[in-house]
Write a structure and sequence with these properties.
Blueprint (H helix, E strand, L loop, with lengths): L3 H7 L22 H10 L4 H6 L1 H5 L13 H12 L29 E10 L2 E5 L6 E4 L20 E10 L4 E5 L3 H4 L24 H14 L1
Parallel strand pairs: 3-5
Antiparallel strand pairs: 1-2, 1-4, 2-3, 4-5
Length: 224
């Protein structure tokens, strides 16, 4: 149970809708209520009118209410809160869902694109949960469309990603994933055996002019 002091410290984050004092439904700390009241008096207004009327708030200058215990940043925060009383200062929660119908390894097929969450990062890659019991491995070579030497350059723990299934080995309980784009995953064109050669490539000679033809004839006669 919270003691009086602890409750006082938490009261600034406790909002009471439809309270007698409208500041009770804001993030303004009770210790700063007197500052808001002073602002209202300075603007020849009331606290409720100060909250509702933007033009009245524009008359307030933060520097007029700075004291030894309350700085300008605190005053500015109070004014921001008066603009939107009751707002939630926390960042909105990003919704995440795994793909429907994917619950076991048997449901996975190569080529599937699935939303996932990075659960572990190692020297050789990262593990991603795509909604089945076994996390899939994204090898470091498949973490990004560029060369990286540290997986932490590409992903972080808890990051939401879109992964592509490369391979599923149910017997060994292994899932291979990729975070690369489709074009980057395409295999390099294989070279046909007849195209391979250790001999240096020489350019085909073009037609000789009269001087070159005469020189070749002299060289041939000399060799003969």
């Amino acid at each position: 149970m919270l003691g009086p002091k602890a409750f006082e410290q938490c009261a600034g984050f406790l909002r009471i809708p439809n309270a007698v004092n409208p500041l009770d439904n804001s993030a303004v700390h009770p210790e700063s209520y007197n500052v808001v009241e002073a602002m209202a008096a300075k603007a020849n207004s009331t606290v409720p009118e100060l909250i509702k009327n933007a033009e009245t708030r524009k008359q307030i200058k933060a520097k007029d209410f700075i004291t030894e215990t309350i700085g300008q940043f605190t005053i500015e925060d109070i004014l921001k809160e008066l603009e939107k009383p009751g707002r939630d200062p926390r960042s909105p929660i990003e919704e995440f869902r795994f793909s429907e119908g994917i619950s076991t390894m048997e449901d996975l097929k190569p080529g599937m694109k699935l939303p996932g969450i990075v659960t572990n990062i190692t020297n050789f890659g990262a593990f991603v949960n795509v909604g089945v019991k076994q996390d899939g491995l994204v090898h470091i070579s498949h973490l990004a469309n560029r060369y990286i030497c540290d997986p932490n350059e590409a992903v972080k723990l808890g990051q939401k990603v879109m992964a592509t299934v490369l391979e599923v080995d149910i017997a060994r309980k292994r899932i291979a994933l990729s975070l690369k784009e489709a074009g980057e995953r395409s295999a390099v064109r294989s070279v046909k055996p007849e195209e391979k050669s250790d001999r240096p490539v020489t350019k085909k000679a073009g037609p000789m002019n009269a001087f070159q033809a005469k020189l070749m004839e002299l060289k041939k006669n000399f060799r003969d």
